[in-house]
Amino acid sequence: MSYEKRGVSANKEDVHSAIADLSKGLYNNSFCKILPDFFTQDDDYACMLHADTAGSKTALAYLYWKETGDITVWQGITQDAIVMNTDDMACSGVTDNIMLSNTIGRNKALIPGNVVAALIQGATQFADLMLANGIKIHLAGGETADVGDIVRTLDVGFTAFARLPKSDIQLINIQPGQVVIGVESYGQASYESEYNSGIGSNGLTFARHEVLSAKYRRHTESYAPETDSEYVYSGSKSLSDIYEGQLVAKLLLSPTRTYLPVLKMLFQEKRAAINGIIHNTGGGQTKVLHFAKGVNIVKNDLLEIPPVFNMIQSENNTAYQEMFKIFNMGQRLEIYTNKEEADSIINIIKSFDINAKIIGYVEEHSNKNASSVEVHAVNDKLLYHSS
Predict the structure, then answer these.
(1) pTM of the model as a whole
(2) For position 33, which CATH number holds?
(3) 122-128: which pairs have CB atoms within 8 A and are 24 or more residues apart?
(4) Which of 42, 50, 67, 288 is deepest in the core (most CB within 10 A)?
(5) Residue 234 resides in a domain
(6) Residue 16: is its pLDDT beyond 60?
(7) Domain for residue 212, yes or no?
(8) Number of structural domains in the chain
C-alpha cells in the first residue's frame, strides 16, 4: 500500500502487538479503556483518561500557513486534536464534564509564539462552542516544549479526563440481526459555521502527498527525508485550486467534526437502544473489526462519498480497497442498534442537520472467533477480515 510507503499505517499492527498484553480496564467491550474511580473508591463510578493528537494534519496546516500567512488555520488543528479525544470517549458514554490538557511540541526556529497563541485560542473557542451546546469542557493548561531536535515543525496533542457513573458507560455488543446506522462526516451541522469536507484527522499523510504537487517539496521540513521522493507531493494540485466549488486547502483542512452534541442527546433519549458506537478514525470503515467477534458486518448502502475523498482517489487512481481502510469516506460514526429503533435514532441525528441512514446489517460469521466487514461501494464488494 502506498500509505505504508509514506511511513504510516492504517492497521498499526506493531502498536496493537505492543499493547496486546496490557489490561483492558474494567470492560473488554468498550471503545475506550475504562478505569476504576481511584479518587473516591466509589464502585458506582469509573474514570476515563485518553490521549491523542492532530497527527500529520499539522504538516498540512504548516504548508498552508507558510503559503498564505493565515494563522487562523491553527485553530482548526486544535479542534482536530481535541475531537480525536472527546469523540472516542463519547463512544464509551462521556459527553460532558471533560477535562483537557494540551501538549505542544514545536521547532521554535520555525514555529513562533503567535502560532502557539492561536492553538491555545482554538481550544478556548471550541470549549465555548461546546458550552453553547450544553457540554462543559474544562481547560487545564498544558505544556509547550521546544524540541526542534525531535519535531520537524509542530506536534499538537491533548489528554482528556472524565469521571462518570458506571450506569452511563456505553459498551459495544454487536450481534447478528442488528443494523448499522451511518452518520455523515461532511456538510454543515447546526453547530458548525461552515461546510465541513468530512476529512477528519486520519490519513492526512496520504492525502497531503497524493493531492499536492511537487512544488511543495521546497518545504523540506514538512515531510520525512526518509520517504522515497516518488511518494512526496506526487499530486497535481495547489492549495489555492478549486475542486467542485471548494478550495483544495479547505477540503483538506476542514476541522474534525465533533459528534458530542448529537451523542449527548442520543444518550438522553435512546441509550437503551444503542448496542455500540464506533468512531471510524484509524482504520476507516474497518475500525469495527477491533470490537466485534463472530459477526460479518455488511455495509451495503453507504452514504454518498463526499468530494474530498473523490479528489484524493482520482489523483493516482488509488484502489478503493485502500481508500476505505484509510479514510472514513464520509461516515465517521457508526451506531449499532435494532431495526425497530433505527428511525427514531436517525431522526435525532437529523435534527442537528447531519444526515444519517441505515447503511448495513450484522450477520453471523462462520467462525465465532473471527469477524469481517463487507463494504459494497463503487460497484464493487470490498472484503476485510480481522487479523
Answers:
(1) 0.94
(2) 3.30.1330.10
(3) 122/74, 122/75, 122/76, 122/77, 122/78, 122/79, 123/78, 123/82, 125/75, 126/78, 126/79, 126/82, 127/100
(4) 288
(5) no
(6) no
(7) no
(8) 1
